[in-house]
């Protein structure tokens, strides 16, 4: 196994916490640092963008133990992710730790969904090792944007294309998703980009598309790099204007296309969406009929006692919880509290202070006004 240096004590506190809860599951990130220099990387938000060499925070054994003993972990249920916050899992050196963790979790007999997101090289030997896993339900999401402006994304999109092809040619049990992101209006939505994405989708089990996180730090980075301003405003949620979404959907025709990552993963594995988007029916209006049927069978409005107990277990105020056919609404929550409930119930959980407006699919209001 390639040796990575241990990270120094001056690492931001948010990165020293190796397990955090994200919408697509509990995320394990005990390796930080990445040389790929994608300008829109969330590492800007953690004040860690300049750490180009991957570093270990703790051993793989300790990291796996930290994950499975986390308060929110449920064996065979909680969706998991690995190395999706501060590095790429298939980088040299990092890849050894990826497989060590996947194999350790698999050896425990765990069948949790596991998402591995990469834009880097995947070779036939890597697929063979993924195929050796017998319990974890692994999905490899290949990030592809088609952006050729090196100030924004210096990594050649052809690398992701080759990785997607390698997976298609060698996998059986492992699933793959074309992760089409970030889509930016006027940049990578040309007819050429749409044609190429449609071609690549033929090699994947599903395609998920999403927009751009445009926070102050990312905007400042692009400005310093001389990149023309992409949008007039920053936003807490990803930006994907209505016209761009309609353009993507029209271009894809009948190919399986999903607005949400978990929906694409669910389709690839033939299971119901673990985030319960079925309640937000306008999210699902592009989903294949067979996927809608699967989600419909398992979409059950939870009883108030169960919801109240779950909310209380994560420290939420239970005095004004609202349950509808669409979602559960709580007040004063943090993301990890909502996501834990969401995955336990297969039902959308929103905070009323941050409403999801009808038809906007949980995205920023930019381009939807």
Automatic annotation (TrEMBL):
Sorted keywords for this record are: Iron, Iron-sulfur, Metal-binding
Source taxon at top rank: Bacteria
Q: What is this protein called?
A: Radical SAM protein
């Amino acid at each position: 196994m390639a040796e990575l240096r241990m990270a120094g004590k001056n690492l931001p506190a948010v990165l020293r916490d190796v397990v955090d809860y994200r919408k697509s599951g509990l995320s394990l990130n005990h390796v930080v640092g990445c040389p790929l220099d994608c300008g829109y990387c969330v590492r800007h938000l953690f004040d860690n963008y300049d750490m180009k060499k991957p570093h270990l925070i703790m051993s793989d054994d300790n990291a796996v133990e930290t994950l499975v003993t986390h308060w929110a972990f449920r064996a065979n249920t909680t969706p998991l992710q690995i190395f999706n916050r501060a590095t790429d899992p298939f980088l040299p050196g990092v890849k050894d730790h990826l497989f060590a963790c996947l194999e350790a979790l698999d050896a425990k007999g765990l069948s949790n969904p596991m998402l591995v997101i990469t834009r880097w090289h995947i070779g036939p030997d890597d697929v063979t090792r993924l195929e050796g896993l017998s319990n974890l339900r692994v999905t490899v999401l290949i990030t592809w944007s088609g952006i050729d402006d090196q100030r924004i994304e210096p990594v050649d999109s052809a690398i992701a294309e080759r990785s997607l092809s390698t997976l298609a040619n060698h996998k059986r049990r492992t699933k793959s998703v074309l992760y089409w992101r970030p889509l930016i209006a006027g940049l990578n939505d040309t007819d050429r980009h749409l044609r190429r994405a449609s071609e690549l989708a033929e090699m994947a089990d599903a395609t998920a598309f999403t927009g751009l996180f445009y926070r102050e730090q990312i905007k400042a980075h692009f400005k310093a790099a001389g990149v023309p301003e992409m949008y007039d405003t920053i936003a807490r949620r990803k930006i994907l204007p209505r016209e761009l979404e309609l353009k993507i959907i029209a271009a894809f025709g009948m190919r399986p296309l999903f607005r949400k990552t978990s929906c694409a993963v669910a389709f690839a594995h033939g299971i119901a969406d673990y985030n319960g988007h079925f309640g937000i029916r306008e999210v699902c209006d592009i989903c294949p009929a067979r996927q809608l049927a699967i989600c419909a069978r398992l979409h059950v409005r939870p009883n108030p006692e169960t919801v109240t107990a779950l909310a209380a277990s994560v420290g939420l105020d239970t005095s004004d919880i609202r349950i509808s056919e669409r979602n559960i609404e709580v007040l004063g929550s943090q993301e990890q509290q909502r996501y834990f409930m969401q995955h336990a119930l297969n039902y959308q959980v929103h905070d009323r202070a941050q409403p999801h407006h009808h038809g906007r699919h949980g995205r920023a209001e930019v381009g939807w006004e």
